[in-house]
Each structure stands twice: as structure tokens, then as C-alpha cells.
Amino acid sequence: MYRKWEDIDVGSVEKFQGQEKPVIIISTVRSLMRGLGFLSNPKRLNVALTRAQTLLIVVGNVNTLQIDPLWRKFIDFCDENGLIRHIGEDKKEFSKKKDVHLKNVSKNAPDVTTNDSDPMKLSPRRMVLDPLPMHYPSYIIKELLSPSRKNFKSFNLTQKAKDLQMLISYFLDNGVNQKIYVKFWETLIQMEDCAVSEQFSQIDMGHNKQILYLLKVPNLSEHSSTILDKMQNVEISPSHCPSKRMYAYIQQIRNSDILLEMKNSDVLDKDISYNVHFLPNRKAIRWEMQALSYVKKYDLSQFFFPTPVSKHSIDYTGFEWINENVKSNPEQQSAIIHIVGKASFPAPYILFGPPGTGKTTTIVEAICQILKRNQNTKILVSTSSNNACNVIAHQLLQYLPEKSIYRIFAVSKEADLDSIDFRLKEISNLKFGSHYYPHLDELAGYNVVLTTFAIAGIFAQANINCTHFSYVFLDESTNGTEPSTLVPIAGVISSRYKIHGQIILVGDPKQLGPIVFSDKAKRHLSVSLLERLIDTGIYTRDRQSRKYNPRFITKLLYNFRSHEKILEFSNHQFYNNELVG
Hints:
- Keywords: RNA-mediated gene silencing.
- The chain is of the alpha/beta class.
- Helix content is 30%, strand content 16%.
- The protein has helices at 13-16, 42-51, 62-65, 69-80, 139-144, 159-174, 181-201, 225-230, 283-298, 324-327, 330-340, 359-373, 386-397, 422-426, 440-443, 457-461, 482-486, 522-525, 529-533, 564-574, and strands at 2-5, 8-11, 21-27, 52-59, 205-208, 214-216, 231-238, 246-254, 257-262, 274-280, 349-352, 379-383, 405-407, 448-452, 471-475, 494-495, 498-499, 502-507, 553-555.
- The chain has a 7-stranded parallel sheet, covered by helices on one side. The protein has a 6-stranded antiparallel sheet with strand order 5-10-7-8-9-6.
- Helix 7 (181-201) packs antiparallel against helix 9 (283-298) and helix 11 (330-340) packs across helix 12.
């Protein structure tokens, strides 16, 4: 569920990951003594702690919250600092202490002026895309994962189904390795595909007469916002004739209402009842399967289990820092130098740290330093969310000319044309007033291309030259599944046995990971590529010094955003007291 009133956002914790707020209020009043439910995930508390800039308010019953060890620590911390306030008479368990006033330390960026004038209508040259297979889950896996079949029971299974059942059990018990890499992720993606379809089936409606242009769906707002975001099309058939199928686009979802636009100019009879079947947008899954097909075709699995490589010399000289904050931050400087020099190549470089430590600033500075050294370099920036992509684009516009930056939006953003910032619209594939994917010849004129993980699949679909992008920055990579982070890599900067560009994984493994609906696949699909790699092989701390090797990984330590009191608990509980406020 997610609502917005002017400057107030209301929604689940996932909706606010990736964007800071001056004030965050967490309501825990629906938690029960027998179980905290979603609050039991420690990363949810950490998201709130690291995204609140000036004030964090937790509303709830301290006695209920104390059943969880982490919340008990947090409550003790708040009590020691006089941060607990009671409503009513039950104040005996906690001492009365003076109010603690937090200084407003937020640094608001200046507003960007918008222009609502209509852009010139032109007919741009469009990208030529190969057909993208549907990659539907097999009948066997759908039958095996049917809600009516509990705990993988083997009764009435064919031999093929039994073999698949054994394979899935092996994957879930042992996890991924280089030998089974492609088959492992293909199987888990199909499991997730089935789980999403099952979620949609719970919203399906039969014998509905109130369907013309506005479809009323009881209790629609109770479904996960992530599921609602996946809604794209509706299949409609008369109740008396299920074989006659019509389709509609979903234009808008509001409370319990869905606004529909019929395809093919179909007309519905308001006196007839219809069956309604909601269809998820499977484009992201199809691009993930496409990426895995390239991993298999080019034999790339080895690159996602990095081993030490021969060291080449790094030029540490000639860096004149553009951003003032970077001038005094040794961790950012080290990360930028090693990223620019491709120190970890062909292994991914990892840049991680909690919110407010300057990951985005480091990305932007690194891009500027790369282009200072070679103005012909091509860079792909891909993120798990549109918001993160837009933030990086805005910051790049402060230092680079507009003609060097290109933002690629999904076709769904055409419906939000009026809400997109004018400066971003002017450097994007929406600049002519309608959506299009630009021809590769047009993209060749830009130094930096920005898009989300899923949409990056168009580059492989268009058969882009594997040496076009020299660097691929994957921001918020801990928010995406491992297969989703393969989309901007496999088939984009790869050929047989080779990766041609420096990959930079950016994120914070202590924040919430990807949202997964398959209970069986969640254990592995909810672990991002960055999180899987960070404690293995070349990315681990040195046993004696307890430091990371800066050729492969950098942890940012200086927090520029949060008040030190808000940061204190999170620093101790999640970040080994290494953060500096």
C-alpha cells in the first residue's frame, strides 16, 4: 500500500529505500506479542535509521517490541538516551528524562526549474530489437509448485516431475556455484514467476458486472505495492463464454479502482458479467532469462566467482577532484582511483557503505574523472530504481554538458510524462513527447547512458557492440536479485570467455534486499550479487589488518547526512562502529 499527500509519503519500508526523508515515522501498533511479523527483519529497522535525516519517531508498545532481541537493544538504547515518551499512566518501567532536541542537519538541493511547454513532435530513428522469447515456466514446474501441492510431496508425479523436484531440492539445499550457475538461476526465476502469477490469481474476479472503463476490485489496496506495480494488462472474458477473450491496458490504480483502456477498440456490455484475469508484466523476467542465455552462450559463469588476477600498475597521479567533499575523503578518493584504473578488472569492483556516506557522489566523481582522461569513453549507469537513476542524472548535469548524457525510460513512463522533471525529459527518450528506444547510432553520440537494470536488456536485444561500454556502474545493486544485475552485463559488455568493461557494484548489504514472492526461492533469490561476493575470496578483509584490499573493494565510512544520535545505534549494531558522523 502506498499513498502520497503533497509532502507526506505513506507506505511500506520498501517504498522509502533509496530516498532520504527529514522525518520518518514507523508505526508498529499492529505488532503482536506472538510475533512482530515484518518488523522482525532487522534490515527494515536499519533502513529507517539510515534514511531519517533529522528525526525518527517509532510509535508502538515497548513491551510488545521487546520480544525481539534487536528491538530490545534499540529500546534500551533509546531509554539510556532519554528518547522514550509514554502516552497514559504506564511509565514505571522507564525513567523520565529530559527531551533531546536534534539539530536539523539536512542539506536540501536547490529546486530544479521546470518547463511545461510541449516538445516538438518528431519521428526519431528507433532501435532495432531482436524478438524476445516469452520464457514461460514449464508445465511441470507450474504443476510442481501448485498451491494445492504442499511441501513438494511426490504423489502422482511423472518421472520428469520427480527429477525436477530432486533438482530443485538440491539447488535450495546447496546454493549456487559456477558449474550449475545458469540452470540454478533459470530454475529459481521460474519459481518466482509462478509465485507472482499465484499472487495475481488472488486478485482475479469472476462474474463481475461493474466493468466498463472503471473496474472496482474489493480490498485491492491490501495487496503488496510491489504486486500492484507489476500489473500491466487484464484478460477479460464473458462469464457465459470464457473462450472469448478481450484485453485491456491498466492505465491507473487508485484505492480499489482500476482504470482500464480496452485494446482493439473492444466494447464491453455493462449488462453482462465478466471474468477478469490480471496479467503481470513479465518483461523483466524475460530480460533476466535473456541475460542467463548469454552467460551460457559465452561461458561467463567464472566471472561471477572472481579469483585473484594479475596486477597491473595503477596511475595514482593527476587527480584534481571536482567535488569538495571528495577532496577530504580518502576512502572516496581510493575507490575512484581504483575504479578509473580498472584495478579489479575483469572482476567487479565493489563500493559499499550505508546511506549518507557518499556512494552517489563517488559514482559521479568517478565518471567525471574517467571522462577527463578520455572524452570518448562510453559509460553505462544502471540502477534498480528510477529514483536512483534520476538522482545520478541530476548530479551529472552539474558537471557534464547535457549533450553527453542520455536517460532511457521504460515505455510505462510515457503515462507519467507531466511528472518527469523537464531537464531529465530533455535528455531522454521522452523528449519528443512520446516513448521510443533510440537507435544505437544515436546512443553512440553520448558518453553516459542511464537506465534501470531491466531496461538495460534492450542493449543485448539490439546486439550492441560488446566493447561499446568501457564501464558499467550498477547502483543499488543490493536491491536487485543476482539475475537482475546480470541484465546490464551479459550480452552487453561480453563475448565468448570475456568481459570487456569494468563492472562496479554499488550498494549496502545491510539495507533491504530484493522483494521475492516465492517462499522456496527466497533464501537464494533475496541475496544480491554484491552481498554474495562481499564475504568471499578477493573481497574479504585481510586477517591481520582487518582491512579490505582497495584494488577490489572500498567501504565508505563518513556519514554526511544523518544526525549522529540517529546514526549511533545503527553504527554499533550493523556497521561495526566504523562509521564517522
